[in-house]
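Exam prep: given the inputs below (a chain plus NAP), describe the expected output before reading on.
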Amino acid sequence: MIGVLLLLFLLPFLLYIAAPQIRKMLSSGVCTSTVQLPGKVAVVTGANTGIGKETAKELAQRGARVYLACRDVQKGELVAREIQIMTGNQQVLVRKLDLADTKSIRAFAKGFLAEEKHLHILINNAGVMMCPYSKTADGFEMHIGVNHLGHFLLTHLLLEKLKESAPSRVVNVSSLAHHLGRIHFHNLQGEKFYHAGLAYCHSKLANILFTQELARRLKGSGVTTYSVHPGTVNSELVRHSYLMRWIWWLFSFFIKTSQQGAQTSLYCALTEGLEVLNGNHFSDCHVAWVSAQARNETVARRLWDVSCDLLGIPVD
Ligand SMILES: NC(=O)c1ccc[n+]([C@@H]2O[C@H](COP(=O)([O-])OP(=O)(O)OC[C@H]3O[C@@H](n4cnc5c(N)ncnc54)[C@H](OP(=O)(O)O)[C@@H]3O)[C@@H](O)[C@H]2O)c1
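Solution:
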């Protein structure tokens, strides 16, 4: 009895001591590519914090000109300065991009296309999770609007530049949560039924379906695309849910840091010879299993057409 009580008493202390080792075990998957990026151009969405910031930092460290595409330019500028100082790379630039507003997305793309000759790496990283029901400037439900439709439009607008710059890559940051997602075409905007957690899962499923359809359409173009699950990462993603914030705080010693969370995005952006795995989903720097719905080509094609329709892009 005394032994059990002693163990219970010591358990939090033992867990605290073991936390770095447990975190290391749970965050296998490190991008070991030694590729350097002088002369290369990269865009990272949502790069002012979390996984996006760490992804941008590593790309800058390797010599790329990196665009931090952020909705809050002031936050972005502070981070750009921090990355410039840490990496010695002055080519870290901030541009305004609000994925919840197609006007802002079009303005970002217009500005980028006017000032840059190339785009080699596009990391569609920004995301929102568990927002109370709300809509984007264009009337799309926030999760599907920002996480899927915003990045769909951005990629579409930058596609010619990516093709001209081939070999080039598009990395879409999805999630393991896609397993709970479904594409309800009759309720894409959550107007008939809405659950904040599920809305996130649906949008993350859309990221994978988009990746697969994009890969099919880009075959032979020299542009390849990958979706990733970054792991469970200690970031600001849970900001909209009190419960999730509390759970994240409780397990913060064990879950990945943002730097560890960036590894799979970096792996897909940098690893040489990955072109043969065009369209695949990755986790911990390995190809990962996706749900049956995420492998459904018919749903992927239909989602593509519906997305074009909603965004006023001619369907080809
Ligand atoms: N953290 C995890 O455990 C986890 C797990 C699986 C997948 N992911 C995915 O990883 C990606 C990065 O998330 P994170 O964990 O790094 O979260 P985070 O720290 O909350 O970062 C999200 C980024 O997205 C930006 N963003 C949100 N709405 C935007 C909008 N309308 N326009 C432009 N940017 C917007 C945020 O900007 P502000 O700072 O201005 O809000 C922020 O820079 C997301 O796609 C997420 O779904 C994360």
